[in-house]
Amino acid sequence: MQSNNMDYLTIALPKGKLFGLSAELLAKIGYTAEGLSDKSRKLVITNEEKKIKFIVSKTADVPTYVEYGAADIGVIGKDVLLESGKDVYELLDLGFGRCHLMMAVPKAEKRAKLTDYNHTRVATKFPHIAEQFFNRHGMQMEYIKLNGSIELGPIVGLSESIVDIVETGTTLKENDLEEIVSIQEATARLIANRVSFKMKFDRIHTMVSDLRKILESEAAK
Ligand code: PRP
C-alpha cells in the first residue's frame, strides 16, 4: 500500500531514546518541522514548505510503517529492525544509539558455560534474535516475551536468563546481573520503503548524501 502523497516525503521517527538524536541529525540537513516532539500528542507533523511529514510512532512500529509504505523513510535501531524481520532497505548507519544485545544471568547463579543453560527459560523483548542465536549454538530454550524491564525476569524467578540490550551497563549492575555472551552490536539506521526508494529516488538519494556528509564531518572532528 502506497498511501502517502508523491509530493511529500514521510519520515517515521521512534519515540523514546532515539527520538532526540534523530531529530537533531535531521535538523542539520534542514529536515525540521515546527512542534516536532515525541512528547506532543500530535502524531503527524508537517513542514509544508519543504514537503516533509514526520510520523512519531512507538519504536517497534517504525519498520511496519516503512514496510507498508505509510512512511517512505524511518529511523530505527538495528536491534529492533532485525527483530521485526521487515522487508525494507537499510540506507545508512547513523552511528548514534550504540548498544549491544547480549545474554545476562544473575551473578550468584552463573553457570560454567553457555550450553549449561540449555532447556532453560529466557526473558526477552527480542525472541526472534534470541532464538536464532541459541539455535546456532544447538540450544533449545523457552522464550518468554516481555515488553520492558526485562532484567526483572531472573530476579523474580520467571526465567534463568535474559536477552536484552545494554547501553551503559547500569541496569545490569544495579540488578546484580552479569553479561555472559554478546550477541549483536546495534546502532540507529536510516531505512526506506522499497517502492518509495524507486519512486522518490532523487529526494531520498539527496537526503542520504546530505546525511552522509554531516556524519563524515562529525567523525572527522
Ligand atoms: C533498555 C534495556 C535495558 C536498559 C539498558 O531499557 O532494555 O533495560 O535500557 O540500558 P543501560 O545499559 O544503559 O542500563 P529501556 O530503558 O529502553 O526500557 P524498558 O526496560 O522499558 O525496555
TrEMBL record:
GO terms for cellular component: cytoplasm. GO terms for molecular function: ATP binding; ATP phosphoribosyltransferase activity. It is found in: Cytoplasm. The keyword Cell membrane does not apply. It catalyses: 1-(5-phospho-beta-D-ribosyl)-ATP + diphosphate = 5-phospho-alpha-D-ribose 1-diphosphate + ATP. Pathway: Amino-acid biosynthesis; L-histidine biosynthesis; L-histidine from 5-phospho-alpha-D-ribose 1-diphosphate: step 1/9. Its main location: cytoplasm. It comes from the Bacteria. One of its GO terms (biological process) is L-histidine biosynthetic process. Lacks the C-terminal regulatory region which is replaced by HisZ. HAMAP family: HisG_Short. Catalyzes the condensation of ATP and 5-phosphoribose 1-diphosphate to form N'-(5'-phosphoribosyl)-ATP (PR-ATP). Has a crucial role in the pathway because the rate of histidine biosynthesis seems to be controlled primarily by regulation of HisG enzymatic activity. Belongs to the ATP phosphoribosyltransferase family. Short subfamily. This is ATP phosphoribosyltransferase.
